[in-house]
Amino acid sequence: MNRKIKDIQKPEFMKKAVASHSHSAALELLIALAVFLIGDFAVSILQMPAMLVHLLSSGEYIRMIQSNHFDMQVILNLLLHLPAWIRVINMIAEAGLIVVFILYCRLFEKRKISTMGFQKKGVIKESLRGVLLGVFAFAAVYLICLLSGSLQFSADAAGNFSFLYLFGFLLGCMVRGMAEEVICRGYLFVSLTKRYSVIFSIVLSSLFFMMMHGMNTEMSALSYLNLFLFGALMALLMIRYENIWLIGAFHGIWNFAGENIFGVQVSGLQEQFSLFSMTPIDGRGLLNGGSFGLEGGLAMTLVFLGILALLLWRMKKKGYFIEKNMVLNSYDIEYNRSRMPKTAAPYEQGQNPPVKQQPQSEMLEPEDIEQSATHLANDAPVKFDASYFKEEEDDAED
């Protein structure tokens, strides 16, 4: 039996993005990387004042300036061990990435903010839904590791912690989570669907998200797989609930719960300030992710595969899987039509092109045609194929 290829139906806000110009997959990836680098530079500028205050408040740094002798090891140590207030400011400054990507979409892609998933209605409701889903996912992974003896819990706080900083880190994690979702889903994923199928766009944008974290320490094959699954889940949730607020909140609360509540490493990064402390048990790295954190463990793989299976089943029940159709981009069609030669225009409109008239000076007179026919008949008699006329009659009868 010939099965039709399936795809996932786009929500309305993604369909509206098709009205803007699309690019090839390779170019979309390069644009995303270029805009990210520009945004990262903007974030660095926003972070600079706080970093200068931190350095100038260090006696060692002041003595290096006075002696005109700089010790790079001391400077590196100052940058790696930042106080809590600077870490909060640095995380909040990543809002610059969100602004840069929104500006690019508006000014260059001519896309409305709504096509990135920023819907006006239900902001609080969808954000709370994302928080609940993120807490559920993290709790499931955490409980598997805790009940299996893969993690050791400690009620002692890490670092000079306070609840004021806890709120600051919550805000910072939400901004950082939203920034990553704007890059990988709000911009890249939606942009890819303007020319390619939704399933292909999910795969490619998830691979991009995975490689964004590829330079983190202690990466493994399971880490790459889990990061890909995380990206795919975020894309599907964006389609299912038709907004970016939910996945931004999911991503942010996932990071906050891991880094600042339970003190586990997230994507290979260890936060110095957390409400509780967690120690991975040696020899259980396959389940708890080892020094990379829960995102490198089998516990996360099992939980996210289960959530993905449940989500896909629900989407199938609601009719999200449709027959795969060609993605028609109205902007590209108009652009190609404007570049089409004038002689090809009638073909594009389904009409026959005008017949080029023979110049009057080159047309043969009737007596010339008769003389030519007589000459051909005398030199080489013309043989007619009766089957040709039979086929013509059959076609006429049909």
List keywords for this structure.
mainly alpha, 63% helix, 398 residues, two-stranded antiparallel sheet
What does this molecule look like?
The structure is a single chain. By secondary structure, the protein is mainly α. The chain has one domain (about 15-335). Helix content is about 65%, strand content about 5%. The protein has 17 helices and four strands. It has helices at about 10-15, 25-55, 60-65, 70-80, 85-90, 95-105, 125-145, 165-190, 200-210, 220-240, 245-260, 285-290, 300-315, 330-340, 345-350, 365-380, 385-395; strands at about 5-10, 150-155, 275-280, 320-325. The longest helix is centred in the first third of the chain and has 32 residues, at about 25-55. The two termini are about 30 Å apart. The model is unreliable at about 380-385 (pLDDT under 50).
SSE order and pairing:
Layout: E1 6-8, H1 12-16, H2 25-56, H3 59-67, H4 72-80, H5 84-92, H6 95-107, H7 123-147, E2 151-154, H8 163-192, H9 198-212, H10 221-241, H11 245-261, E3 277-280, H12 285-288, H13 298-317, E4 321-323, H14 330-339, H15 345-348, H16 366-379, H17 386-397
Helix pairs in contact: 2-6, 2-8, 5-8, 6-8, 7-11, 7-13, 8-9, 8-10, 8-11, 9-10, 10-11, 10-13
For the residues shown, what is the average pLDDT?
83
Q: What is the rounded distance between the termini?
A: 32 Å
Q: What is the succession of H and E elements?
A: EHHHHHHHEHHHHEHHEHHHH
State the strand order across the main sheet: 1-4
Report the principal-axis shape: globular
Number of domains: 1
Q: What amount of the residues lies in strands? A: under 5%
The biggest sheet amounts to:
2 strands, antiparallel
Our Rg estimate from Cα atoms comes to 32 Å
